[in-house]
């Protein structure tokens, strides 16, 4: 009932596979920066190259990273793909749009007091929420404090406005979103995006959830979707991305080392 290999994926969908990410045994989540010569960093550079086939000649493309369920490595992928673009000298922004479970800010040592949620309600302006990092060309917009109405905020026209403004400032815009198979408002983000990456984690992703996600995305007429197979070679031994995250979508899956 779990996706074991690529053969399982081809039985579910004919969507293209844009990348293969090996199991990471590094403590750091920002492997592209911290371990640039590793197989994991090389896999992200390869994914970056493949993305050109999906974004083609789009100016300031918006790339959405999602999955069918929690704990598949969305945030890890988003952080490192954004890092890989920034290392090319491209002005890149990583947007934390998981308003229910804010992430990313911690790994880059920035505050989550201001972010997407405070901009969407008109509390902060754009310059307040765009945070610089220690890495040239990489900016972060954290999700901000958890709002009581994440679905309504995400689906509002202000979200479209935010991305139009970001396109004027950045070469690449990477969105870390909630799992699309679990949270409906991700569909609005997927429709704004120029291309969507669905993360499929080996020995973790449930086949029926992936099947449902793929079907829903096709029905919704979302353009340019591809898959990324993550955590290859883990042999079911938990995540190597550090065990400090727990996910709150009601599945009981831990992000990081698997919870019992």
3D architecture notes:
- Helices cover about 35% and strands about 20% of the residues.
- It has 10 helices and 10 strands.
- It is globular.
- The strands form 2 sheets. It has an 8-stranded mixed β-sheet, with helices on both faces. A two-stranded antiparallel ribbon has the order 9-10.
- The chain has helices at about 5-10, 30-35, 40-55, 75-85, 115-120, 125-130, 150-155, 155-170, 185-190, 205-220, and strands at about 15-20, 60-65, 90-95, 130, 140, 170-175, 195-200, 225-230, 245, 255.
- Helix 3 packs across helix 4.
- The model is unreliable at about 235-260 (pLDDT under 50).
- It starts with 5 loop residues before the first helix and ends in a 5-residue tail after the last strand.
- With about 260 residues, it is an alpha/beta fold.
Low-confidence stretches: 236-260
Helix content: 25-40%
Overall outline = globular
H-E order: HEHHEHEHHEEHHEHEHEEE
Proportion in β-strands: 15-25%
Quaternary form:
single chain
Total strands: 10
Distance between the termini: 18 Å
Question: Cα-atom Rg, whole angstroms?
Answer: 17 Å
Sheet/helix structural class: alpha/beta
Mean pLDDT metric? 89
Strand order of the main beta sheet, please?
1-8-7-2-6-3-5-4
Largest sheet properties: 8 strands, mixed
Number of helices: 10
